[in-house]
């Protein structure tokens, strides 16, 4: 079962592009939206990342940073971020350590693929506590981004 509201968010460090990493705790003092998604360049994942990228200013206005996380390699997430026109970090959890820590591992995906992230969203507050948690019932379910923004407003 995915981590719940009130839980301390597990810290992590993941590559954002070859040779660069991002650590969750470096954002202490800000709200952070963690967007877990199954795979780059798939239909709903592309729609989600492009939607957030186009509306990124509204997250910044709520004093929030956005981090997206998938099992794709650093090279793939770098290209996916560029094609999504995103200015927030896309992180590679190729080894699935963060996906497992947040308990959002989808064992079966599509076409026989196994072990991707669930489509999930967590809001982590300035102190590092999860204040919003949502996990899609299937990878084709688009998250309620208005609910995420409402959680950021408190």
Describe it.
It is a single chain. By secondary structure, the protein is α/β, with parallel strands linked by helices. It has 5 helices and 9 strands; from the N terminus they run E-E-E-H-H-E-H-E-H-E-E-E-E-H. The protein has one domain: Glutaredoxin. The chain has helices at 43-54, 56-61, 74-83, 97-101, 145-153; strands at residues 13-17, 20-23, 31-36, 64-70, 90-92, 105-108, 114-117, 120-124, 130-135. A hairpin with a 2-residue loop joins strand 1 and strand 2 (20-23). The model has no long low-confidence stretch (mean pLDDT 93).
Write the topology of this structure.
Layout: E1 13-17, E2 20-23, E3 31-36, H1 43-54, H2 56-61, E4 64-70, H3 74-83, E5 90-92, H4 97-101, E6 105-108, E7 114-117, E8 120-124, E9 130-135, H5 145-153
Parallel strand pairs: 3-4, 4-5
Antiparallel strand pairs: 1-2, 3-8, 6-7, 8-9
């Amino acid at each position: 079962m995915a981590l719940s509201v009130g839980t301390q968010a597990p810290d992590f460090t993941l590559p954002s592009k070859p040779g660069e990493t991002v650590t969750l705790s470096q954002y202490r003092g800000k709200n952070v939206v963690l967007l877990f998604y199954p795979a780059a360049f798939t239909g709903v994942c592309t729609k989600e990342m492009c939607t957030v990228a186009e509306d990124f200013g509204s997250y910044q206005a709520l004093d929030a940073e956005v981090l997206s996380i998938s099992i794709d390699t650093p090279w793939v997430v770098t290209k996916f971020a560029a094609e999504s026109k995103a200015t927030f970090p896309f992180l590679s959890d190729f080894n699935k350590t963060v996906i497992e820590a947040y308990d959002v591992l989808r064992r079966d995906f599509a076409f026989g693929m196994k072990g991707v992230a669930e489509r999930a969203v967590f809001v982590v507050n300035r102190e590092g506590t999860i204040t919003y948690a949502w996990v899609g019932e299937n990878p084709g379910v688009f998250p309620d981004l208005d609910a995420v923004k409402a959680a950021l407003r408190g």
